[in-house]
Design brief:
Blueprint (H helix, E strand, L loop, with lengths): L5 H22 L16 H6 L3 H29 L4 H24 L2 H20 L4
Length: 135
Amino acid sequence: MMKLTVAYWCVLIASLLPFVCAWLAKSKGFGKSRKTGGFDNDDPRAWLAKQTGWQARANAAQANSFEALPFFIGAVVIAHQLAAPQATLDILAVLFVTLRIIYIAMYVAGLSLVRSGIWALALLVNIGIFFLGWR
């Protein structure tokens, strides 16, 4: 029986990050009526498209978080299949998730240069995960 490794748990956490971003993007509109600018669950995409500032950036972070998922999931699965060293894989997966959380914070805060640097680091970590089991 196969157990869930730390890296697999990181896949779950990374998969939930876009939903955290969506909640952030929508949070300012919770509890208000649509007439007063509150969140419009009947047309959420149009409502989000009208947002500005940190809400718009949180929505953009949501999209980017979804975009980063396939490569991360694939890299973790491939590393497991190639019998990569588990401890190293787990450390890199935790590092990737940590960098993605920092990335989201920098995106929402509007720190674009730092955000881009963190994005690049997370991409390099993901590439490292992908090739970890290569011999």
